[in-house]
Design goal:
This protein has two helices and two strands; from the N terminus they run αββα. The chain starts with a helix and ends with a helix. The longest helix is centred in the C-terminal third of the chain and has 89 residues. The protein is mainly α and 189 residues long.
């Protein structure tokens, strides 16, 4: 009933839109970051798929070249340089590069995993900010309701004061009229 709750409510309502705007802008920024991370994640997934396909292709090549080399009696396929394949040429063992496709695969998977974690973190931050926005909206709605209640109470009290003043005014007029009536009755006697 005092003026303090209304004043506190007014202060709350003036700061609530500013905090709502800050929460909204930070929420928009988080959404933008989430979109960017999703795009990077998509690119990395496609790179990972490409590396995995290349890895499978290399495994198949190694399997077929290993089978043909073992059938010919050698452990690794050999290429002959110079001399037309005769005794004067240099024989070099062709070993497929091991670990390069796997290393790229592991790195890509690690990047994807890291981005997934970052996306999850951003999603949780976004959910938190949205929850803060909801709480701020609830607080603003509550403060508006309190302000309406205080305004209704003020209006009710003002009506009571007016009614009391009217009652006093009419009571004063009745006393004045009765005093004049008593005075004229006494003068008539």
């Amino acid at each position: 009933r005092d003026a303090l709750p209304g004043a506190t409510t007014t202060t709350t309502t003036t700061t609530a839109p500013a905090s709502m705007q800050n929460l909204s802008s930070s929420s928009d920024a988080l959404k933008q970051q989430l979109v960017e991370r999703d795009a990077r994640l998509s690119v990395l997934r496609s790179r990972l798929d490409m590396v995995e396909r290349e890895n499978e292709h290399l495994k198949r090549e190694r399997g077929t070249s290993g089978a043909s080399a073992s059938a010919s009696g050698g452990g690794a396929s050999r290429g002959h340089y110079g001399g037309g394949g005769g005794s004067g040429g240099v024989s070099v063992a062709h070993v497929p590069p091991t670990g390069t496709a796997n290393a790229a695969n592991v790195v890509a998977k690690a990047e994807v995993q890291e981005l997934k974690q970052e996306v999850n973190k951003l999603r949780s931050m976004l959910a938190f900010k949205e929850e803060e926005m909801l709480e701020a909206r609830r607080a603003e709605d509550d403060s508006r309701a309190k302000l309406r209640e205080a305004d209704a109470e003020r209006t009710r009290l003002a009506a009571e004061v007016r009614a009391e003043r009217r009652a006093r005014a009419t009571a004063g007029q009745k006393r004045a009229t009765s005093a004049t009536d008593d005075g004229s009755d006494a003068a008539a006697k």
